[in-house]
Amino acid sequence: MEDKRNSERLSKKLKSEVHSDEGMTFSTSVNVSEGGIFIATPEPLEEGTEVQLSVLTPDGESIDVKGVVKWIKAEDSEDSKSGMGIEFKEIIESDKTKIDDVLK
User: Which one has a higher pLDDT value, 58 or 3?
Assistant: First the structure.
């Protein structure tokens, strides 16, 4: 699969909540970038699903962002977890700054 990311992802384990029309999921991120996040979950949402994401930073601050599921990995493998890649769509400047701080 061709890598279409616009920014580098860094391994980060952050607690998160993913809200969609289908319900809410508590999850943990595997990696994060300026443009999106990969959330580990045994039941990823379908590609194209719009979500409201709440991510807890290591210092306890919440980042709230609207996003869309861009791709899914349906099954765990030896070297990676099942989950979904979420692209950030709407994010306020203060939350963007919090993401930048997490990536430092």
Answer: 58
